[in-house]
Design goal:
2 copies of one chain form a homodimer. The radius of gyration of chain A is 26 Å and the shape is elongated. With 434 residues, chain A is an alpha/beta fold. Chain A starts with a strand and ends in a 16-residue tail after the last helix. The first copy, chain A, is built from 16 helices and 19 strands. Chains A and B meet through helix 2, helix 5, helix 6, helix 7 and helix 8 of A and helix 2, helix 5, helix 6, helix 7 and helix 8 of B.
């Protein structure tokens, strides 16, 4: 059964604390598809897993991906039900890549969407990624650094990711560095002796106010531009105020304050709204694991086989049939349509063909270009979708043709397989009910 | 500054829905340490990250890990404040491996602790891992399969992990398989023709009751042992009851029911307590991401440098000084002690020396052995720590010697650095306050 199949990858519903999602993971997905090939080891593994003689699995040997991919580029804002990616290929190929594509797109989209909210909450202050120590493995840490950059983070503590992606590596001394010296002052002076540029002193190892006072003394003597202190515990808003006063009194108005320690978009929002004099926000665990929504409810569903539209009617998991497109126009909600429909006036299609016959159609996408798309899309969002507390996502509508096709396929399935109408749920409201 | 340093890796406090943690990640950590070596590429990367000439970083070239590791073996139950791992090595080595060790131990311990609760909730029914599509990358999916097996999962849908770790590969047909046929009956028959052993039919593509009825008809004709149906949506308890009745009426009392779809320990517990006739629970996203607690509040803290005990006094993040041991005896709470203390009567030490001079002291640990440790430790837990709803973790105490050392180091730091006592918080209550 190797006729052409189209699978559509989409998120059924947004996590409750998200007003939008940021498309991410496409580049990893395309890398996988371009390199996909069933080896003889794979055939042996499949045979072992199924308890079958390898000869029976031999037809899969050498199978590669030579299909087409239409996808939303990374960095674009997307909503529930909108395909992020559609794969059209002979059924075995399209089926075998399901898990990897779902894994990469789900994970990276979840992380990018969380990180985006930190950037919005920071109101223009730099945000940096300190998450590697608590992400779900080092690969996940790499992706956290990458999608952080995609949404505008100013740097990452992940040197490997910074090197590979040409990001700014960012970090400070460790508490252990302070502790190996007899006291903080010795530690700060030693650090400044061996680091000739701007330095950032970690001031909360023993007591933050005492630490800032010591740091101010050393920084005044140094007289270097671009220096900072870092607060990593306690009431960050209050301590930032006290640190700012100490630094200003010492004649150091240009020394910046970096805050870290359990920060997420809610904490940043509260600090910004409380006018805490914090210059840089370093986010870690809660962002690198997207702790309040560590996954999105994604699906990779067959929507067409051998030219015939297909759909599931499973309770709560109804899918819409057919290859799709999403049309976006300023000041209106997105329209999910069939892929060959004409765009509504002034609307642009979100999905572009990015791979044909198993090959990328252009060069690798660029993180900077993805970031620009993100900036443009977020700027166009209503405040209700952007806000940190109780955001309200936009609800795409569906085109008349897609709604009609959904109805036809559903009625056909109900009549043929279930003996009449009345089963399953509904999918989405129609764009134009006339 | 390359004198000997000891760092202690521990979890400050348990997530609110955990009554215990399951130690995991040690094997990955030891692999990393055994292979750790700073290459000339690394030196270049560090120099780039720091904006320094590579010559200044050259002293790090060739740096490898030749220290000692004492650790709690994988599979053991652990609690807040108990070191999972202590590294003793020249400071630069011990410091440079911090992020990787924290990352692996935190992630795998979080996942193992979540998976363990599913096994407890299932009350003896097999649990299988279906999480790969939504874990934080493929590496995280591999670890989810591995720690699932560690706590007693019966299989995994991750064929790569099953092959590498010699686990049982487990799965069913996809919804798309059903959809490419004109109807479910054709799909089931075709599947049975090409799969000669036991088959599991996915019955919820269109309507579960209708799907089970069709599956029963095909299964009765097949007459094969070991077959199953899988429910993947809707009210699983109610549908399992209806499916069981249909199968029993068809004379198929041995056909098992597999349930999946958003399951975690709470959902399994409710189904088991509601006496749903479900034979196998397949868990996915919520377990593979440990969705209600996607991280543990882990730390890797300097506790000794050049023979001198060290500690942090940071607000809310106080650490205890000195190299440690944990003593566990039946029917009492654990005692966190200094590493060279004699064990209390009848108590065993949890930390073992597993690496010396950068080499493992024995062969790689065995997943089956880790599983046995887990089974023994969980059996010894009070019901209050094991229960699914509102579990209560045990609270380790600290030995008199450790409490005395903590007081001495704190008072010394306060006197020398902060001008008197009264700063910082407390760490843990003492085992024996006399």
């Amino acid at each position: 059964m190797d006729r052409s199949a189209t699978f559509s990858l989409f998120v059924r519903g947004l996590p409750s604390r998200r007003g939008f999602l940021v498309s991410a993971g496409l580049e990893s997905a395309l890398d996988h598809l371009a390199g996909f090939r069933v080896t003889s080891d794979d055939v042996q593994d499949f045979a072992d897993a199924l308890g079958r003689p390898p000869a029976e699995l031999r037809p899969l040997l050498g199978l590669a991906f030579d299909g087409e991919v239409r996808a939303v580029p990374e960095g674009r804002v997307v909503f529930a039900g909108e395909p992020l990616l559609e794969v059209t290929a002979p059924l075995p190929q399209a089926q075998m890549v399901e898990t990897y594509l779902l894994n990469q797109v789900s994970h990276q989209t979840a992380l990018a969407s969380k990180a985006a909210r930190c950037v919005l909450a920071s109101a223009g202050h730099p945000v940096v990624d300190f998450s590697l120590r608590r992400t779900h493995g080092p690969q996940a840490g790499f992706q956290a650094a990458r999608v952080g950059s995609l949404v505008g983070f100013a740097g990452t503590s992940n040197v490997a990711a910074a090197t590979r992606l040409n990001l700014t590596a960012s970090g400070t001394m460790a508490h252990s560095y302070i502790e190996v010296f007899p006291g903080e002052e010795d530690a700060f002076r030693a650090f400044a002796r061996t680091h000739h540029g701007p330095v950032a002193f970690l001031v909360d190892t023993y007591d933050t106010v005492s630490g800032v006072t010591t740091a101010a003394r050393v920084l005044r003597e140094l007289g270097r531009p671009g220096c900072a202190v870092r607060l990593d515990s306690g009431d960050l808003g209050e301590l930032a105020g006290r640190a700012r006063a100490i630094l200003d009194e010492a004649g150091l108005p240009d020394v910046r304050i970096i805050a870290s320690g359990g920060l997420d978009e809610h904490a940043i929002d509260a600090l910004v709204k409380g006018k805490a004099p914090i210059d840089v926000y370093a986010v870690g665990t809660r962002v690198g694991t997207s702790a309040d929504a560590p996954y999105v409810d994604s699906a990779y569903k067959l929507v067409e086989y051998d030219g015939r539209p297909t759909m599931k009617l499973s309770s709560g998991k109804v899918t819409a049939p057919g290859r799709k497109q999403v049309f976006r126009a300023p000041l209106t909600t997105d329209v999910i349509a069939l892929w060959d429909e004409a765009p509504p006036t002034g609307a642009d299609p979100l999905l572009r063909t990015v791979m044909r016959e198993g090959s990328r159609l252009g060069p690798r996408d660029d993180l900077a270009a993805a970031h620009e798309r993100f900036v443009d899309d977020v700027a166009a969002l209503p405040a209700s979708a952007r806000r940190i507390r109780d955001p309200e996502p936009l609800e795409p509508t569906v085109s008349r043709r897609l709604a009609a096709l959904t109805g036809t396929v559903r009625r056909d399935l109900e009549a043929r397989l279930l003996g009449g109408p009345g089963h399953g749920g509904t999918w989405k409201r129609q764009a134009d009910p006339t």
